[in-house]
Amino acid sequence: MDSGNLVLVQDFSERVIWQSFDYPTDTLLPFMKIGLNRQTGLNWSLTSWKSPEDPTPGNYSCGIDPTGYPQLFLYKDGDPYWHAGSWTGDRLSGVPEMTQYSAFNALFVNDADEVYIMDVFINASIIARMVVNESGSLQRYAWEDRDQQWIEYASAPKDECDNYGKCGPNSNCNPYYAGQLKCTCLPGHEPKSPGDWYLRDGSAGCVRRGGVSVCRSGEGFVKVAGQDLYVRVDAIELARYRKTRSLNQKAKVAIILASILTALLLVGSFSYRLVIKKRKDRRSHNPPMIDMPNSTYFKGSRSVKDRDDEARRNRDVPLFDLSTIASATNNFSVLSKLGQGGFGSVYKAWELWKEGNCEDVIDESMGDSCSREEALRCIQIGLLCVQEFAEDRPNMSAVVFMLANNDVVLASPKRPAYVFKSKYHGTSLPSDRTASANDEQFQWSKAASFTIIFLD
Which of 92, 134, 185, 444 could form a disulfide with 84 if both were Cys (CB 3.0 to 4.6 A apart)? Predict the structure, then answer.
């Protein structure tokens, strides 16, 4: 058959006389049973080979013990060697990783006729097998068609704590106790053979500590090894357990807090170093500062001396010679407008706004391509974006939102950054007048100087 089962049937009646799945060797295939037929006494179990070259029965076997609640065992010379546990409803209790095997489901049957466990693969194209090898290991393999080889994906036992009876009765085995005895007695118990225990042989297990009684008032239960296993102990042992548990919890909290603080310090230190590095990189690319006695500066800025002093400390605010600015803008020509190196239109998309005549700035060539209200709204948003102080300006997401939602009421813009306030060659400009490149071209003295404030 396609399942690998060799079946002998009687002519015409198709009654099964014999089948290979009833007599497994060292290999279990999907839909083969491990267990017991209670009616016929047929025992479905695996038996290892003597050696990789000798197929005669070896020392290890795998089967179900039907006594009490049925459990799966791996035996060595007839004695329990590894315990897979009893069925919990979706897996064997000693094999928690069974629920992670998405390729197959395990089927467990326990009734008056038989008890068995069987692997049922969800995908029929998967070829898999389980083998009991001559070393006492239960191994699961899947066929890798691409590489044409068997790939091991699970095995048991995994470590020495998986060995049945490793620590004897009334004890717990922890495989993570590196360099020391893996066995510990359950609460309220002590080693049965202290000498063997000292020699790291815990197979004799533990016995209840002398003088301990659990039949008086004050006794209780304690949880063992993080599992759903509770041991009844007397009041003294219960108090000792609670004290130890409280100390352990406080230690865990202290460790967590220390870890968090350490992480915050590392992140803060890294961020600080990154900011310092970026500042140094920006300063190294800025042009050299020029100390100039006579400067024209923008409204809201500090005095030239204060700004020059700050510029010496922070190269993020560079100073430029007025002759350089005048040369770059063709002596502040009206042809050098904003977006093309100038400033005239901003001072004008501002004076007209104050006068309530902002529609005069709309280019006649636009015709009917947009309504008057749309154009005025765009002008108002533009003025909001060039306000003098960065905290007053909207961010890009706010700009996009205002452009896309005409129902949003816009704030009234404040004075733009590019507006003159103080003196020019000793003569103060009135607060209500500004220099406009659209009105006339200024003839600047080469001795004058200029401070540029960049928008944040």
Answer: 92
Asked whether 254 and 248 are in contact (CB, 8 A), the reply is: no
Give me the numbers of helices (H) and strands (E) for the chain, helices first please.
8, 24
Nearest one of 208, 213, 252, 259 to 236, comparing CA atoms: 213
Going through 171-261 in order, the beta strands assigned E by DSSP cover 171-173, 183-185, 189-191, 206-208, 220-223, 230-233
Low-confidence ranges of the chain (pLDDT < 70): 179, 211-220, 225-232, 234, 236, 241-254, 282-322, 332-347, 349, 366-367, 417-456
DSSP letter at 186 equals P
Give the pLDDT confidence of 349-367 residue by residue, as tens digits. Answer: 678 878 887 777 777 776 6
Percent of the chain predicted with pLDDT > 90: 25
Q: How far apart are CA 451 and CA 113, in angstroms?
A: 99
Percent of residues in the chain assigned helix, strand, coil, to nearest 5: 30, 25, 45
Which whole-number Å values give the CA distances from 448 to 68, 295, 296, 312, 420, in the listed order?
105, 6, 8, 20, 14
* C-alpha to C-alpha distance for 233 and 222, rounded to whole angstroms: 7
Closest CA to 44 of 58, 29, 59, 56: 29
pLDDT at position 334: 61
Query: 242 by DSSP, 3-state: which?
Result: helix
Burial of 172 (0-12, 13-18, 19+ CB in 10 A): buried
Nearest-CA neighbor of 360 among 375, 381, 341? 375
DSSP string, 330-363: TTT-TTS-TTTT--HHHH---HHHHHT-GGGGS-
Give the separation between CA 353 and CA 131, rounded to whole angstroms.
88
Tokens standing for 46? 């695996």
Give Cα 131 distance to the centre of its chain: 38
CA distance 45 to 75: 11
Q: What are phi and psi of 43, to 5 degrees?
A: -105, 115
Identify which of 366, 365, 348 has the alpha carbon closest to the alpha carbon of residue 357: 348
Q: Which residues, other chains included, contact 418 with Cβ-Cβ below 8 Å and sequence gap of 6+?
A: 298, 343, 346, 347, 386
Strand partners, 114: 37
Please state the pTM of the whole predicted model. 0.49
